[in-house]
Amino acid sequence: MLYDAIISRLKFLSNDENREGMARFGIRTENAYGVSVTELRKIARLTDPSHDLALRLWSSGIHEARILAAFLDEPDKVTERQMDAWVRDFDSWDVCDQVCGNLFDKTEFAQKKAFEWSHEKDEFVKRAGFVMMAAIAVHDKTADDKDLERFLPVIKRECTDERNYVKKAVNWALRQIGNRDANLIRLALKAAEEISKVDSPAAKWIASDAIRELERKKFS
Q: How far apart are CA 210 and CA 110, in angstroms?
């Protein structure tokens, strides 16, 4: 009953203008209604968390229902198998980022999956690995500097991937790790300087953008 009510609500809120805007930002809209994340959060606030409901919403294949699934699932009930299955379904950067930054980063497997997915060839799975690193740096207050420092060699290893959604996530991870504290700013800047010497347009963009932000924060 609740599932049907949510799907009906999404259909009621459908907006063709929003769908067109999503498409302009590189979001696949074949299965999207054009419902804003603001509206999705309103629905989530009025709905009790439910693992079973989240699984059903994900299985619908509807773009907004999948984002809602991340808002409504219960991190302690999420399994590695579910994470690996969902990440293979990612077909848009926004679903990737919302799921990783609102659900997956809160699971006990977060750091493990960040490392695993960073090795993958698929663009959105690989992006997910680095979005996880960024989300862990921002949200996981139990992670210490050593945990986050372990991500830096992976960032350096993958800095030459020219694909837009990957290189932006690599950059994001580097910046968020550096933004964590003074020690990690120093380590992230050191990593960025090393990346800047790599003969790759992606590496040079990742490094210059990160250095600009981290140097500004360092002296703020």
A: 23
